[in-house]
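User: Structure please.
Assistant: Input sequence and predicted structure:
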Amino acid sequence: MTGAKHGVAAPAVPPGFRVMREMPVGRHPLLAVFPGLDQLPPAVRLDEVADRRSKLFDSTCVEVIDEDVWMYVAPWDVPEGMRRRWKPVTAPGRDCIVVGRAHLAESPELVLFMDIFHELCHVVQRRDGANLWEPGVSYVERWTEIEAYRFVIREARELGVTDAFLRDYLKVEWISESEHKALMEQVGVPPH
């Protein structure tokens, strides 16, 4: 899951990145919401094997919901230990990325670019057998989160994104200040 963006100006996205911001609530093919996403250089870096990459982009869907959320990969079932505090959209046996309608419509393009590739990293990880919600491991210590954040931070740095923007990007509301510092350290973003 990725998040929020507290006012640091966002640089431009890579040429060819597009977002259909007015998608209605419901489930849509990934490339209907983000046309051409599979043609961008980060898509190739995400999975260099063309057949697997094609399957990833063709079979993954996006579910737009009318809730105040950023993005997350829909679990196949609600993870144990989270049932009382989280009521996610689930997609049994399906790769589906959930996005809040307001986030899709209003967030800076660079944030959406980073978020969608972060979540696609999670789809690839889960396809390779990873547990995205490993019990007993905090958000900032999960290797799946660290790997996904490192991927999008590398992509952002290729675009000239500042450390200030990256610090802001990593400041998500479900982690504490000390966890934010730990996450920055894990992914190579210097503190203030």
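The first strand starts at residue 26 and ends at 29.
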